Amino acid sequence: MPSTRDIRRRIKSVKNTAQITKAMQMVASAKMRKAQQAALAGRPYSRLMNEVLASVTDHSGDFSHPLMEKREGTEAATGKRALVVISTDKGLCGSLNSNLLREAGRADATTTIYVTAGRKASQFVARTRRNLKAEFTYKDSPMFSEARAISKFVQEMFLKGEVDRVDVLFTNFINVMTQRPEIRSFLPLGEIKGVDSDFSGVSSARDLATPSFEYLFEPAAPDVFAALLPHYLNFQMYHMLLEAKASEHSARMVAMKSATDNAKQLIKDLTLEYNKMRQASITNQLLEIASAAMALG
Amino acid sequence: MATLKLEIVTPEAKIYSEDVDLVTLPGVEGEMGIYPMHVALLTQVTAGEVVAVKGGQGLHLAIGEGFVQITGERVAIMTDMAIRAEDIDENRADEARRRAEDRLREKLSDEEMVAVNASLINSLAQLKVKRRGRS
Q: What's the CATH superfamily of B4-85?
């Protein structure tokens, strides 16, 4: 049976915890707003990119590029595949990372080469003794240059023939309550459909094509196309980093909110118990006084 | 008089969007000057200087590599980096250049090389824009 002092101490420590989780919740929600804004700020760029892509693909005919080469099932196949895992650096974001890494663990360890962004993913790959090729970091507000580094790296892996395909595993931001781990194929490039964006609200390249213009190309359309492809991939990578960041912050916000709520409930229960105990002891004391007075009287 | 709408966007933000009379930009095959009613054109740009002329006043910007889409009434530049001349911090750009040059002398893996080269090109473009008309 804990004494009233124990309970008082307990209440104090729970209160402190609640204060910290509350603060973390506020920080996470501010950062989430920033991450969403960053995604919105990329909208004009992705729209323009889609327009350019649409008009270039219209003009370059049956153009093929090493980045589009499908090697799976052919002679040149190595049977290997690269998986880029985009995780968070820090924990305390609910089940976000465990969901993501469960997905990462499903890949065949013998044929998968991992490339990671974020510390949690690197730790996971190291812990499970899988094949880690490179690890990248990205900041709280992802920079385009960080995405470019990752994207360049996997493009080179692909072009050198080290892997047959590259997939990206990241947490897709659906809304504040829901984030879903998703695997997207990155290379080889299949049909170019424009930067896909349930998030930044841009429809597919096809819809945005403006057939009224006949563009001149300088240099020729296939050259522009070849230069545009890596760029398109970099931007996709950037976009996925943004999604992952927005997911992280909203998951953390929700996790911290429920932690704060739990702490508040705990404080309530403990206070009730404390009061009951206090009253019981007062009643006891009164009884003692009353019986003593009666004995004397 | 007809005007051109100049838009400069980077993945991180829309840097510039205004009606201008003339734009010069660093195309891959040389400097280009674009007046309104230009023929529709798609091309690449290299790191360098963009000048937007509006009412006789020139606005200078440094841009990174990218693409430009030109129609009769619009010039849309998409690039990795874009910064107005007055916002360029000369010291920081200079330091970035020095850092990049130092890094280039070290042994670098390919992908580091690409990143360092890109930042060198970007800082050189910034410096060029900033120091133009001086020295």
A: F0F1 ATP synthase delta/epsilon subunit, N-terminal (2.60.15.10)
By annotation, the residues of A acting in catalysis are 93
Please answer whether residues B6 and B21 qualify as being in contact, where contact means their C-beta atoms are separated by less than 8 angstroms. no
Coil vs helix vs strand at A86? strand
Average pLDDT over residues B72-94: 82
- Among A49, A217, A219, the residue with its CB nearest the CB of B78 is A49
pLDDT given for residue A263 in this prediction: 96
* Both structure tokens of A105: 């663990």
Structural domains of chain A in order of their starting residue, each with its CATH number:
4-22+255-291 (1.10.287.80), 25-254 (3.40.1380.10)
Looking up tokens 């892509």 gives A53
State the pLDDT confidence band at A197, using cuts at 50, 70 and 90.
very low
B108 contacts chain A (CB < 8 A): no
pLDDT at B50 over 50: yes
Between CA A277 and CA A272 the distance in angstroms is: 9
Cβ pair B7:A145 closer than 8 A:
no
The pLDDT score that the predictor gives to residue A201 is: 41
Taking alpha carbons only, the member of A233, A64, A70, A65 closest to residue A163 is A70
pLDDT digit string, tens, across residues A81-93: 999 999 999 888 8
CB contact (8 A) between residue A45 and residue B29: no
Domain boundaries of chain B, sorted by first residue: 4-85, 89-130
Using a CB-CB distance cutoff of 8 angstroms, which residues of chain B are in contact with residue A217? 41-43
Inter-CA distances, A10 with A20, A263, A264, Å: 16, 11, 13
HEC assignment per residue over chain B: CCCEEEEEECCCCEEEEEEECEEEEEECCEEEEECCCCCCEEEEECCEEEEEEECCEEEEEEECCEEEEEECCEEEEEECCEEEHHHCCHHHHHHHHHHHHHHHHCCCCHHHHHHHHHHHHHHHHHHHHHHCCCC
* Chain A residues lying within 8 Å of B13, measured CB to CB: 41
- What are the Cα distances from residue A31, in Å, to A24, A37, A123, A248, A253? 10, 10, 24, 10, 9
ipTM topping 0.90: no
